[in-house]
Each structure stands twice: as structure tokens, then as C-alpha cells.
């Protein structure tokens, strides 16, 4: 969307506001606009006016440390959505709800958060931020919204640069028309100038980008590209593996989906792919919301197809119902995060569960890469994830597939 189109939409919303609309409608209009921009909207608790001039957080805690600005979603910022129906459902739950935007690669936004108006000018001139950048007035300071640099892989972003907070992956900013506890509303600025521009979001000014990179941000490397770009002519195969387990008399047959590197998954294997992926993630007790994101992305990459969230959730719940035997046998990731110190081992364990039904270095690598991005705090770099996928796949191919018949 061009800056011009964006302003047209904003003006249309302003007209509706003038004619009088409910908070619910207002939140829906803005959410729709942000989703159309490709941004992920995060439902947050809102503010309720208990008595004139006295706002409290709609979470119900009168002592709430973060009134009107913490996520309503169970998995925090990772619950940010690009589905307007999800926003509508949350509004049913909380008609006072505020909204935020998940920053980082998902929305393609790098936000700079300066929480003190007194330092805004100094910061702006220090890092040469132009006057026509999309900005937002917050309760105490200002946000600047930039395009997330394409040559960053999202790892190692520093939390601060100078006097500002840097917000990328795993972070969020409250967004217009959210209400601030001070009674003011988050307000987008520089709209007139934005309206004359081709791109809504500007690139980071070189000085600012350099300063953030000095703080340790990682650049894309070859491995990363290798993991996310899949093209090629190979096709997937269903591999049947028949063998007699130790101590047993009768042979068993295992079926695995074999996806050669660079290959897409053929249409008739698509269901097998998503069911097996779900199965492995359910066994690892990975939260439903993460499973949904992983499966959606895997289907997009390997099958060029969209899969409905409801289909995934239904399958997750069906499989969970059948799973009693597995519990305790594998990793438990129900907390939704993989902390530093256990990232390598945990991703390796997940990969080992995946390899029971899926084979292929690119495939395992891509699934682990998405899980790494969603759950590891902070994420491992691409090289490390690739090497886990490689060692798992080598093991399968050398030990198990050596005698397989296709
Ligand atoms: Zn609260």
C-alpha cells in the first residue's frame, strides 16, 4: 500500500469517527487497515473509566503494572494475528480492548520507541531521522516505524540504541487508536507528508541502522537463504520401510514422507505432510498457536497452499485425544518458549520426533527453523539450525533408509 492509499483509508476512518462510531467499530476499522498492510495485530487489555478521570486496566487488576498495554493472548505477542475475525472475537470478550502491532519480520516493521519527549529531537538529529517518517505520539514520547531491513535475520537485535528502545522480533508497540493510561490516544503523525510518498514505511536511516547493527544484530547468511528458498524440480515420495523389530516375530511397515532437498511436496502428499508435522509437534506438547503457525508456513513453503487454521486446530485436538500413551516420553514444550542453554538439545529432540515420519534435510530444517524463530529465546542462528537438521537427516538416511525400498 502506498503512503497515499494509507492516508485515504485513515481519512475515511476519521469521517466515520466524526459521524460517531463505537469503540468496537473503531478498533475493527484500524485493525482491518493494519492487516491489509500485512501487519500482525495484537489484542491487548484496554482501559475502563471507573469514574470520571479514573482509568483502570480491563484485566481487572487495580494494581496492574501495565494498564491497557499487555496482550490478551495466551501466548503474548506470538498471538498477534492477521485474521480480522480473531480481532472481532476478542472484541466480543472485551469491548474496551486496545490493540498493538507485533514488530519484527512478521509485520516487516522495526520500531524505535523513545519514551521521553525531551530527548526526541536530540535522538532525531543524532541519527538523522527525516521528518517524513511514519511516527506515533505515545503517552510520554514517540514511536518511529521503519521497514524491517531485509538483510537482517532477526537474531541478536539489541534492546536499545542510544536513548531509545529497539523493537523487532518478539516485541510489540501499542498502536493508534489505543488508549493510554494518561487518557490520551496513540496518534499517528506526519500523515500529510506520508500521503505524498510511495512507500508507507521508510528504510532505516543509515546512521541508525549502523548503530543498531553495532549492537550485535546478525545479518542474513547463505544458510538462511538456503533454508527459506525452496525451488527445484524434485518431487516428494512416500517411503515404505518394512522390517522386523528386535525381539519381535512379525515385520512392521513404517511409512515416511521423503522430501528431497529443493523439492516441493506433491498434492497427494499434502495431507500426509501436515498430519505428520502436527503429530510430531503434538507429541512434543508444543502450544496449539505455535503449531498453527508452523503448519501454515510449512504448507506454504512445501505445497504452495494455504491451510485453514480451523483444519489445523481440529487435527491438533483430534490427535491430542489419541495421545495418552506418548505423554512423558518426549519433550514438553507447553510453556511455549525454549530458553538459552537448552535450545540445541530441544530442537534436536523435536527433529528426532519429526524424523519418525518425515525425511529430508530441507524439510526438517525448515520446520525447526520456524520453531526456533517462534520459541527459542533468543533464536539460534541459521547455521546452527541447519546443522541440527543435517545430522538428523544423515542419521535417518544412513541407518534407516539404507535398506528402504521406494
Ligand atoms: Zn492489566
Overview of this protein structure:
The structure is a single chain. By secondary structure, the protein is an alpha+beta fold. The chain has helices at 3-18, 23-36, 84-93, 117-126, 191-194, 206-214, 222-228, 270-283, 288-303, 309-321, 343-354, 361-375, 382-400, and strands spanning 40-44, 47-51, 54-57, 98-102, 109-114, 135-137, 142-147, 160-161, 164-167, 172-174, 187-189, 237-243, 252-258, 338-339, 358-359, 376-377. A hairpin with a 2-residue loop joins strand 8 (160-161) and strand 9. Helix 9 (288-303) runs antiparallel to helix 12 (361-375). The protein is elongated and about 80 Å long. The structure holds zinc ion. Zinc ion is lined by residues 45, 57, 59, 61, 64, 67, 70. Residues 45, 57, 59, 61, 64, 67, 70 line the site of zinc ion.
Key terms for this structure?
2 domains; 16 strands; 13 helices; alpha+beta; 3-stranded antiparallel beta sheet; 406 residues; single chain; binds zinc ion; elongated; 6-stranded antiparallel beta sheet; 16% strand
Biggest sheet architecture = 6 strands, antiparallel
The tally of helices reads 13
Number of strands: 16
Question: Helix content range of the residues, please?
Answer: 25-40%
Fold blueprint:
Blueprint: H1 3-18, H2 23-36, E1 40-44, E2 47-51, E3 54-57, H3 84-93, E4 98-102, E5 109-114, H4 117-126, E6 135-137, E7 142-147, E8 160-161, E9 164-167, E10 172-174, E11 187-189, H5 191-194, H6 206-214, H7 222-228, E12 237-243, E13 252-258, H8 270-283, H9 288-303, H10 309-321, E14 338-339, H11 343-354, E15 358-359, H12 361-375, E16 376-377, H13 382-400
Parallel strand pairs: 13-15, 14-16
Antiparallel strand pairs: 1-4, 2-3, 4-10, 5-7, 5-9, 6-7, 6-11, 8-9, 12-13
Helix pairs in contact: 1-2, 2-3, 8-9, 8-10, 9-10, 9-12, 11-12, 11-13, 12-13
Bound molecules: zinc ion.
Zinc ion is lined by residues 45, 57, 59, 61, 64, 67, 70.
Amino acid at each position: 500500500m502506498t503512503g497515499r492509499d494509507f492516508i485515504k483509508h485513515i481519512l475515511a476512518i476519521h469521517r466515520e469517527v466524526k459521524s460517531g462510531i463505537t469503540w468496537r467499530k473503531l478498533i475493527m476499522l484500524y485493525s482491518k487497515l493494519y492487516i491489509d498492510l500485512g501487519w500482525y495485530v495484537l489484542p491487548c487489555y484496554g482501559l475502563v473509566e471507573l469514574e470520571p478521570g479514573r482509568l483502570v486496566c480491563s484485566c481487572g487488576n487495580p494494581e496492574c503494572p501495565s494498564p491497557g498495554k499487555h496482550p490478551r493472548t495466551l501466548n503474548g505477542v506470538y498471538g498477534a494475528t492477521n485474521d480480522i475475525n480473531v480481532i472481532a472475537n476478542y472484541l466480543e470478550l472485551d469491548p474496551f480492548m486496545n490493540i498493538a502491532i507485533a514488530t519484527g519480520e512478521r509485520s516487516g516493521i522495526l520500531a524505535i520507541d523513545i519514551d521521553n519527549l525531551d530527548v526526541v529531537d536530540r535522538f532525531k538529529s543524532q541519527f538523522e531521522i527525516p521528518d517524513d517518517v511514519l511516527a506515533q505520539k505515545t503517552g510520554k514520547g514517540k514511536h518511529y516505524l521503519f521497514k524491517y531491513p531485509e538483510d537482517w535475520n532477526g537474531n541478536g537485535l539489541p534492546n536499545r540504541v542510544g536513548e531509545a528502545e529497539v523493537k523487532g522480533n518478539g516485541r510489540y508497540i501499542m498502536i493508534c487508536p489505543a488508549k493510554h493510561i494518561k487518557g490520551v490516544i496513540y496518534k499517528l503523525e506526519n500523515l500529510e507528508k506520508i500521503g505524498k510518498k510511495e512507500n508507507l514505511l521508510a528504510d532505516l536511516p543509515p546512521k541508525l541502522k549502523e548503530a543498531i547493527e553495532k549492537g550485535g544484530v546478525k545479518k542474513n547468511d547463505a544458510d538462511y537463504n538456503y533454508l527459506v528458498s525452496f525451488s527445484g524440480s524434485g518431487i516428494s515420495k512416500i517411503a515404505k520401510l518394512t522390517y522386523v523389530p528386535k525381539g519381535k516375530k512379525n515385520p512392521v511397515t513404517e511409512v515416511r514422507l521423503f522430501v528431497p532437498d529443493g523439492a516441493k511436496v506433491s498434492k497427494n502428499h499434502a495431507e500426509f505432510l501436515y498430519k505428520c508435522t502436527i503429530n510430531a509437534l503434538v507429541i512434543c506438547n508444543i502450544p496449539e498457536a505455535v503449531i498453527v503457525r508452523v503448519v501454515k508456513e510449512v504448507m506454504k513453503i512445501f505445497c504452495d497452499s494455504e491451510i485453514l487454521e480451523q483444519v489445523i486446530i481440529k487435527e491438533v485436538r483430534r490427535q491430542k485425544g489419541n495421545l495418552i500413551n506418548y505423554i512423558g516420553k518426549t519433550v514438553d514444550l507447553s510453556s511455549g518458549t525454549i530458553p538459552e542453554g537448552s535450545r540445541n538439545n530441544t530442537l534436536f529432540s523435536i527433529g528426532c520426533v519429526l524424523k519418525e515420519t518425515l525425511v529430508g534435510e530441507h524439510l526438517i530444517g525448515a520446520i525447526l527453523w520456524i520453531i526456533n524463530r517462534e520459541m527459542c529465546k533468543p533464536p539460534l542462528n541459521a547455521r546452527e539450525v541447519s546443522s541440527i537438521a543435517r545430522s538428523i537427516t544423515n542419521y535417518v538416511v544412513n541407518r534407516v533408509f539404507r535398506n528402504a525400498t521406494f
